[in-house]
Each structure stands twice: as structure tokens, then as C-alpha cells.
Amino acid sequence: TETKASVGFKAGVKDYKLTYYTPEYQPLDTDILAAFRVTPQPGVPSEEAGAAVAAESSTGTWTTVWTDGLTSLDRYKGRCYHIDAVPGEDNQYICYVAYPLDLFEEGSVTNMFTSIVGNVFGFKALRALRLEDLRIPVAYIKTFQGPPHGIQVERDKLNKYGRPLLGCTIKPKLGLSAKNYGRAVYECLRGGLDFTKDDENVNSQPFMRWRDRFLFCAEAIYKAQAETGEIKGHYLNATA
Questions:
Q1: CB-side neighbour CA atoms (13 Å) of 198
Q2: Residues 43-59: pLDDT tens digits?
Q3: Under 8 Å CB-to-CB from 221, ≥6 apart: which residues?
Q4: pTM of the shown model
Q5: Residue 40's closest CA among 123, 131, 132, 99?
Q6: What does the UniProt keyword field contain (predicted)?
Q7: Domain 9-141 classified CATH 3.30.70.150?
Q8: What is the pLDDT of residues 159-175, one digit of tens each?
Q9: pLDDT digit string (tens) for 115-172?
Q10: Residue spans per domain, the chain
Q11: Rounded to whole angstroms, how far apart are CA atoms 118 and 78?
């Protein structure tokens, strides 16, 4: 006799396209849209490959699970809604995928790209995959707060008005000790620049820890200010 569980749910693998390929779907203004260049493995139809990308980057997994019944897949799933063959290329397709906005944390680029360009790139049904284009809706863009202030506050802090602000990035961007980095900052500010800044590659490497750079840059700023009578600044990279 069959148990109640076996009657209510049948485990196993089913084609992604049965759930995630929806050519009749009309994308919403609030959907995040992605265009992927897909090269399926031999024998894998383009519809299945596109649906696999939509599934693995949203709510799908390699097998059916009973917990799918605890949510609304129609509301949260990604959808492959259109496929174009790439002209002049053999077995390459542009697959268009729509993602509902609720799949993503507000104001998080990391979460968005982890979902869209995450483990789906290691999917076995695909020989190759590349994200070609991305449309981010205004509704999602508005969840990013942006910088806490703009150019006017920067001018107020530096007490510089009526002209462009003049600054530079310290070079070489990698390899300087914190002391020599501070020396370069001082020479730039003493020579007439309003501010200096870290290169994006500069974080807290063994040759120059962030704390040491902060202290030497602060010393450089105070010394340049005392000698010029002007307010000076340095922008430290604190993003990673």
C-alpha cells in the first residue's frame, strides 16, 4: 500500500522548461531582465538550457522537492520568456530571463549579482554562459540610498568655492609603505592640490595596513594645512 506521503508528492527530476520556460510571459516594468548568451551541451534543447538558467538563478534546483508546495513558484520564479539564435554562431542562443523584484534584497548589488551570476555558471547542462545585458528597473534603483551627501557638502568641508576642486590618486598605487604613501600625500597637498585619494586597489595589504595609512595620511593633511592655511583632504578606500 502507498503511504500518504508518497501519494501527495512524487520525487524525481523533471525538465526545467515545464516550469521555467514561459514564452507567453510579458515582463513587468518592475522585473529585472537579463540577457544570457547560452551554449547548451550537445543534445540539450535551447528551451531547456534557457529554462535551466532561469531556474538555477531563482527558485529552482536539480530535482523536485516537496517544499515547492510551501511557496508560490509562479510569484517568485525566474522566467525564460524569449530565445533568439545568435546569427553566424552554431548552437548559441540569447536567452532572456525575467526576475520578479521580490527575489532581491533592497539596495544590495552583492545579492543581485550573487543570484544572477552565481553558481548558475557552473551548471552542467551548459557548455558556456555569459551575461550579455541587464535591465535594472527604476523601482529597484530607488532602493539604493546613494552617497550620504553631494558636491556641495564636499565644498563646505574643504571651504573651496567658485572653481573646480583639484585632486589626484597616489601612485604607484601598490607597493608604497604607509610612511612613503603619507609623504606622497603631503607633497601633493603642499604643492597645491585640494585633496588626494586611494586607488581602488589599495585596501589593507601586508606592505601597507589600512590603520597605518590612515595615521600617516592624517599627519600629512595636518602638516599641509598648517603650512598652506587651507583645508586639505584625503579619501581613504574603505569599501572592502
A1: 23
A2: 999 999 999 999 888 88
A3: 185, 189, 232, 233, 234
A4: 0.66
A5: 123
A6: Calvin cycle, Carbon dioxide fixation, Chloroplast, Lyase, Magnesium, Metal-binding, Monooxygenase, Oxidoreductase, Photorespiration, Photosynthesis, Plastid
A7: yes
A8: 999 999 999 999 998 99
A9: 898 877 777 788 999 999 999 999 999 999 888 889 999 999 999 999 999 999 999 9
A10: 9-141, 151-235
A11: 14
Q: For cell 574643504, what's the residue? A: 158
What grid cell was written down for 80? 525564460
Fill in the amino acid letter for 31. D
